[in-house]
Write a structure and sequence with these properties.
mainly alpha; two-stranded antiparallel ribbon; elongated; 7tm6_olfct_rcpt; olfaction; cell membrane
Length: 400
């Protein structure tokens, strides 16, 4: 195996610099977008090849499809070369477990991307319906989601760069992969191989955070609208003079509640498998990291830090999903309490009956599930951690 030619090295370095500048300009442009609640997320999805715009011409759609397939191909290439690299070091259990642990993150992102692409048309219809509803969202919530997605993207890029620099300083690969040349023959070959890995991995990370941003935005939208409904219910005041206006307000509240229930069911159908993959990935990630801590010695401190950082990022992302899912359950159940706390005792009998129906409906909370097996909640997050540790304990007992 031979080192890569100097021309290829310079080309890769220039390409990396151009990609970094483009990413910075795109993120800066995204941060200024505040037209709608989902505008930022949809633009991000568009730039990472997951959301073809409707206004594209036939030729542009063809080019965009090629771009989308190319980014899929980059992820597949990473999984293939890391699989070969893992097999080449099959006799070293530390390298094998380390490769599996790092590759699991990309497997998680890849399968969620496939699910997202399959459900994309249904998701587009749901978002169009939400945008036509005329529901308002505060500017603070829009900026919050924009900051969140940008923060995750920048942190991930910083983590990749940091681990690549550490690997470069130690004179080895950040993850063992197959390359058409020997990465360890000299420093320039090692730098080139690390740049190739960064270029292959970064699009998959951006896609994952673009999807996560959209899902979290939709959950925040539902929670925000449920809070508004509670406020509207508590603010209903009935009198004979305001009979017509109160009935119209109450009718709007009921219609909006029914609409939000429909949105929640649609989201559950769309993201059912998506959340299942997320839940399984966290469980396996925790189990693998626990195994690695017992296998890797204290002298390999850089490896231990790598596992802890990857695990922390995975747990934070999973917690955000579960927290918002738990918040959806709480706010949807709060509709019943808000209805009871309204001034219903002075209402006519027909309005009281309608309010009772609404209370009964609200006692079945809006929810999202992971494959229909577990609700998306804080309890599920705790259960995933417990399952991961339980699997590790069983494996540890078997090995010992």
């Amino acid at each position: 195996m031979y080192p890569p030619p100097n021309g290829i090295i310079r080309s890769l370095q220039k390409t990396t610099l151009v990609i970094c500048k483009m990413a910075a300009s795109i993120l800066e442009r995204f941060y200024m977008i505040d037209d709608g609640f989902f505008t930022f997320n949809l633009k991000y999805l568009f730039f990472v090849g997951l959301w073809p715009e409707k206004y594209l011409t036939k030729y542009q759609k063809f080019l965009y499809k090629i771009y989308e397939i190319f980014l899929h191909f980059l992820t597949v290439v990473f999984l293939v070369i890391t699989g070969i690299g893992t097999y080449q070091h099959k006799d070293d259990i530390t390298i094998v477990l380390c490769n599996i642990d790092k590759s699991l993150v990309i497997y998680n992102f890849f399968f969620k991307t496939i699910i997202f692409c399959i459900k994309r048309d249904q998701l587009r219809d749901l978002i169009d319906e939400i945008e036509r509803s005329g529901d308002g969202v505060t500017e603070e919530k829009k900026k919050l989601m924009a900051k969140y997605v940008v923060f995750l993207t920048l942190i991930s890029a910083a983590v990749i760069c940091a681990f690549s620099l550490v690997a470069l300083f130690e004179g080895k690969m950040s993850i063992e992969t197959w390359m058409p040349f020997d990465p360890t023959v000299n420093m320039m070959s090692l730098i080139t191989s690390l740049q190739i890995l960064a270029i292959i991995i970064f699009p998959a990370l951006c896609r994952a955070f673009a999807m996560q941003g959209l899902v979290c935005s939709m959950l925040m939208y539902l929670c925000d609208q449920l809070i508004h409904l509670q406020s509207d219910l508590r603010g209903l005041k009935y009198s004979k003079e305001s009979d017509t206006s109160t009935r119209m307000k109450f009718r709007k509240i009921i219609k909006k509640h029914i609409r939000l229930m429909g949105y929640s069911k649609s989201m559950e159908m769309i993201f059912n498998q998506y959340f299942l993959i997320q839940n399984l990935a966290v469980t396996v990630e925790l189990c693998l990291n626990a195994v690695m801590v017992t296998v890797v010695g204290v002298e390999q401190m850089s490896l231990l830090i790598t596992f802890v950082v990857y695990l922390a990022i995975a747990l934070i992302n999973a917690y955000i999903y579960c927290y918002l899912g738990n918040e959806l359950i709480i706010q949807s159940q709060g509709i019943a309490l808000a209805a009871y706390e309204s001034t219903w005792t002075s209402w006519p009998a027909d309005l009281q009956k309608n309010l009772l129906i609404m209370i009964n409906a609200s006692q079945r909370p809006l929810k999202l599930s992971a494959g229909g097996m577990a609700l998306l909640s804080i309890q599920t997050f705790s259960q995933a951690l417990y399952n991961g540790y339980s699997i590790f304990a069983v494996l540890n007992d078997v090995v010992n």
